[in-house]
Structure formats: C-alpha cells, structure tokens
Amino acid sequence: MIKKKINKILVALDGSKNSQHVLDMGIFLARKSDTKLMGITIVSNIPKKYHHLSYPEKPVLLAADKMMESAKKKCAQNGILFEKKIDFGNPGPKITKFAESLNFDIIIIGTRGMSGIKEKILGSVSNHIIHKSSVPVMIVK
C-alpha cells in the first residue's frame, strides 16, 4: 500500500448543513496531516431579487464571504489555518480546475439529492467532480 502525505486539502463549501460536515472532515484530516485548509465556494447564479441592483453580485459575495469567515473561525478554534477562494461560474468545473491547477492532494465535498435520475444519490456538483477530477475526492454525507 502506498501512503502519500496529504499537504493540500480543498474543501468545497456552499453554506448548507451538509457543508458543515465537509468542513468538520476537512478539519479532522488537516489535524491528522498537520496542514492547513483551503475553502472554495462558487457562486453559480445571482438570485432574481438582486437583479435590480447596479452591482447585483455584492449581496451574494457578502453572504459567501460571511460563510467563509465563519469556516475560518471554526478552523482557528481547532488550530487549523484556513484560506478562502470565492469565484463565480459553474461549480463542478470551477472546483475541478482550481484543485488541479494548484495541485491539491484531495477535494472534500458534500453530497445531496437533486432532481433528475443521475443525481438521486449524488448532487450534480459532486457527481461532476468525481467523474472529471484527477485529484482524489472524498464525499461526505
């Protein structure tokens, strides 16, 4: 059995209850590996209630930043350094490309049921990442 040290951990967060489990697993693995965490969230769309604003991304970015700051605080309480990345686009491809471009050792992502047959077990984002990523993926329920 080949054992590779995990140096770079990417946790995909979306603010859901399930993503709190993802963060908990990331903290656990970071402590075991003596490394820091990088959290990523991808804003995939701007809610219609903000379309009338001249800068409709602002409230969504503020909410994403607040969620990431909460994750950073939880990591700090557990002795783990946390960096954040917030981006816009299609979450599956964005997370996959980001993880590969920065040579992460593992992506930790949650799953949830979505509509459609292929997403009965995995959400569409986690389904994409599992099938397209060259970086190992851990799915957390």
Report on this model:
The protein has 141 residues and is of the alpha/beta class. The protein has a single domain, classed as 3-Layer(aba) Sandwich (Rossmann fold). Helix content is 41%, strand content 19%. It contains 4 helices and 5 strands, in the order βαβαβαβαβ. The protein has a 5-stranded parallel beta sheet with strand order 3-2-1-4-5, with helices on both faces. Residues 113-121 have low confidence and may be disordered.
Give the CATH topology. Answer: Rossmann fold
Q: What would you report as the Rg, rounded to the nearest angstrom?
A: 15 Å
Straight-line distance between termini: 26 Å
Count the beta strands.
5
The proportion of residues in beta strands is 15-25%
Domain tally: 1
Helices, by number, come to 4
Q: Superfamily at the CATH H level?
A: HUPs
Biggest sheet features: 5 strands, parallel
Mean pLDDT rating: 87
The rough form would be described as: globular
Helix-strand pattern, N to C?
EHEHEHEHE
CATH class call: Alpha Beta
Helical residue percent band: 40-55%
Classify the secondary structure makeup into a structural class: alpha/beta
Tags for this model:
single chain; alpha/beta; five-stranded parallel sheet; Rossmann fold; 4 helices; globular; 141 residues
